[in-house]
Design goal:
194 residues, 22% strand, alpha+beta, binds iron/sulfur cluster, two-stranded antiparallel ribbon, 6 helices
C-alpha cells in the first residue's frame, strides 16, 4: 500500500493489540533509539532506566543483530499496558502509532557505501480475531499516519532505520556471530543509552 490507498479499521480501545496472546502484532516490534528516548522522557525516566523496566535486549535472528523490544509480561501483555491503556500513549513507539499498518523500507547503497532510504511501503496487518471491528471506518494511509502522530516520529526514525540497515548489511557480510561486532552494532543503534 502507498499513501493514498485505503483500509478499514475502527479502534474500540480494547487494548488487544498490546497483548501477544490476543493476536496483537504491535508488541513484538523492536524499539528505535528515538522510541526509547521519547517514551523515557514522557515517563520522566532516564533512557537506561526506561529500557530496563519496559524493554528487553534480544538477538533477532532475522536481522542478525541484538535489538531492543518491548518487555512482555507473564500474562502476555506489554509491560506498558496498565488498566487496559498504554501508560505512554502520546509517546508510544512508531510501530504502535502505525498499527494496524506496518511500514517497510527499501534501501539503496551508493558506490561509496552510503545507505539511504529509497522508498517506503505499508501493509495492513491481517485481522486477528482481536481486531475484528464492527462498522470499521475507511482511512487512507495518509489520513491514518497524520491522525496518529507518525510524521512527528519520522525524521529520527528514518535516520535510525538507515543505521539499522547498515548494521544488518555488515552482519550479513560477516556471516558469523562475532561478539564484538554485535556489541558495536548495538551501541551504534542505541547510542550507549543502555
Ligand atoms: S507501548 Fe503502549 S501502545 Fe505499544 S504495545 Fe505497549 S502498551 Fe500498547
Amino acid at each position: 500500500m502507498i499513501l493514498d490507498d485505503e483500509f478499514a479499521f475502527n479502534c474500540t480501545l480494547c487494548g488487544n493489540c498490546c497483548r501477544w496472546e490476543a493476536g496483537g502484532a504491535v508488541s513484538d516490534n523492536l524499539l528505535s533509539c528515538a522510541d526509547v528516548i521519547r517514551m523515557a522522557a514522557y515517563l520522566g525516566l532516564a533512557p537506561g532506566a526506561f529500557a530496563e523496566r519496559y524493554g528487553c535486549a534480544v538477538f533477532d535472528a532475522a536481522l542478525r543483530l541484538r535489538v531492543v523490544k518491548l518487555k512482555k509480561l507473564p500474562d502476555g501483555s506489554c509491560a506498558l499496558l496498565q488498566n487496559g491503556r498504554c501508560a505512554a500513549y502520546p509517546a508510544r513507539p512508531r510501530t504502535c502509532a502505525l498499527f494496524p499498518l506496518v511500514r517497510g523500507y527499501s534501501f539503496s547503497t551508493d558506490e561509496s557505501g552510503n545507505v539511504s532510504i529509497a522508498s517506503e511501503y505499508f501493509t495492513h496487518v491481517p485481522r486477528a480475531p482481536a481486531h475484528i471491528c464492527v462498522g470499521a471506518k475507511v482511512w487512507t494511509v495518509r489520513e491514518w499516519i497524520a491522525a496518529n502522530g507518525v510524521p512527528e516520529r519520522d525524521d529520527a526514525d528514518r535516520i535510525w532505520f538507515t543505521k539499522l540497515w547498515r548494521c544488518y548489511e555488515q552482519a550479513n557480510e560477516n556471516k558469523i556471530l562475532a561478539g564484538d561486532f554485535y556489541v558495536q552494532a548495538f551501541d551504534d543503534l542505541y547510542g550507549h543509552i543502555f
